[in-house]
Amino acid sequence: MTSKRQTDSNAQEALVEKKTLHENTSYWAKTPRISVRHFQNLPAQTCDILIIGSGISGALMAEQLCDGSRGVMMVDRRQPVRGSSLDSTAMIQHEIDIPLHLLARKIGEEKAMRAWQRSRDAVRSLVELVQNLDIECSMRAKNTLYLSGNELGSKALKAEAEIREKASINAKYLDQAATQSEFGIDRSASIVSRDSASANPAQLTAGLIRTAQARGLKVVSPIEITDVLPAGDHVACATAHGQVIVARQVVFCSGYEFLKRLESPQHSIISTWAIAAKPRSAVPGWLKDYLVWEASDPYLYLRMAADGSIIAGGEDEESSDAFDDSKKLAANTDTIVEKIEKLLGISLYPPHSRWAAPFGNTTTGLPFIGAVPGLENVYAVMGFGGNGITFSKIAAEIVNAQITGEKDSDADLFKFPT
Ligand SMILES: Cc1cc2nc3c(=O)[nH]c(=O)nc-3n(C[C@H](O)[C@H](O)[C@H](O)COP(=O)(O)OP(=O)(O)OC[C@H]3O[C@@H](n4cnc5c(N)ncnc54)[C@H](O)[C@@H]3O)c2cc1C
């Protein structure tokens, strides 16, 4: 069986590129309620929909697709919830990495506005979904403070606030004096906005999977899918153990171990670092209600977790394996701590968790979602960029519409290049 079109010469090429996904253990790996009951062997070799991957993309996909009308199975080559979703700092933002005024220049104003609006709507509906499902994952709606930096100054932030207002996206521009008086931060400008959130990403993912299990989802681990072959109205998927799973539709939610046939210059894997640290001194009262990030390269972002720890990250490096270096882990996470202390004028204890991971970027900051070109009945989610969780929600909605034969009016924004 081959996953590639007949014209491809290298039939031996791996289906996905296996990667190391963590250096050191993230904070969330030490928290409760992140395990998911699962089968160790396939309970069946057929299903209506096969989801490959048990991270946040697979979890939201399962929650959306398990409506009682179809048999859904989820497989993962790792234990459930042990991919990149365990490393996420889970700043659940509607603000896309590429500011709206810059995205408008890249893809046109109408499309850029739709992408930002869809992102905002996805955050709102994710917060509502978690509330309705009563998932214990410290989900909290939050505001965002976006600070000027070495990439965008006050003029650019003003333009950004104006175009967001035009797109009906909540944003308030603050000049230097207002940023100082409202937040005690010395930057030339900032934008304050609503419609973001934060959560424990592992508890969120596990909670969504458990919800889907209650509606019939079968989770199997460890199962590695090594090949896919569409054949008429079904897709045959080979496993590393020599079995075959036959499904009507297959959805790859395999994170940064994406389908090799989807490799493109429009996205890349880089390295990123993160910490969790308890404050040694009092933190500003507003911080518990805000996500903070900046228009800088390398950039810093931070927020508070439910237990008062500061969760922060940044120092991104354009290398897919730099994260896997213990010296860089120590140095870059120390830098993150120093930057937070300087920005907020506070003191932190040495981090109780420091971790590093690969991270996916795209040239537009937008994810790739939808039908995989050349593979009938196969869909994929590449929720790359700093909004991976928000994009996973959009992906669940779009793929669900495509599978059920409905039209999603924003699917064109995120489709794979052909
Ligand atoms: C340090 C860090 C900080 C981040 N911070 C944020 C943030 O603040 N906000 C935000 O929104 N996003 C953030 N992200 C991004 C976000 O966490 C990711 O987009 C998201 O976790 C990816 O989820 P996923 O389900 O696609 O992938 P994963 O969680 O990696 O799940 C994919 C799963 O697929 C499995 N798999 C792969 N190939 C196969 C195969 N062939 N067969 C079987 N199983 C397979 C893997 O084992 C894995 O478990 C961050 C990411 C990192 C690394």
Sequence-ordered SSE layout with sheet pairings:
Blueprint: E1 46-52, H1 56-65, E2 72-75, E3 91-92, H2 100-107, H3 109-133, E4 140-147, H4 154-166, E5 172-175, H5 176-183, E6 189-198, H6 201-214, E7 218-220, E8 225-231, E9 234-239, E10 244-252, E11 267-277, E12 290-294, E13 300-304, E14 310-317, H7 326-344, E15 353-362, E16 368-371, E17 378-382, H8 388-403, H9 411-414
Parallel strand pairs: 1-2, 1-10, 2-7, 4-12, 10-17
Antiparallel strand pairs: 3-6, 4-6, 5-6, 8-9, 9-10, 11-14, 11-15, 12-13, 13-14, 16-17
Helix pairs in contact: 1-6, 1-8, 2-3, 3-8
Bound molecules: flavin-adenine dinucleotide.
Explained architecture:
The protein is an alpha/beta fold and 418 residues long. It has 2 domains: 27-87 and 202-264 and 366-414, 3-Layer(bba) Sandwich (FAD/NAD(P)-binding domain); 138-197 and 267-362, D-Amino Acid Oxidase, Chain A, domain 2 (2-Layer Sandwich). Helices cover 28% and strands 26% of the residues. It contains 9 helices and 17 strands. The chain has helices at 56-65, 100-107, 109-133, 154-166, 176-183, 201-214, 326-344, 388-403, 411-414; strands at 46-52, 72-75, 91-92, 140-147, 172-175, 189-198, 218-220, 225-231, 234-239, 244-252, 267-277, 290-294, 300-304, 310-317, 353-362, 368-371, 378-382. Strands 3, 4, 5, 6, 11, 12, 13, 14 and 15 form a 9-stranded mixed β-sheet that branches. Strands 1, 2, 7, 8, 9, 10, 16 and 17 form an 8-stranded mixed β-sheet that branches. α1 (56-65) runs parallel beside α8 (388-403), α2 packs across α3 (109-133) and α3 crosses α8 (388-403). The longest helix is centred in the first third of the chain and has 25 residues, at 109-133. The protein is globular, with a radius of gyration of 21 Å.
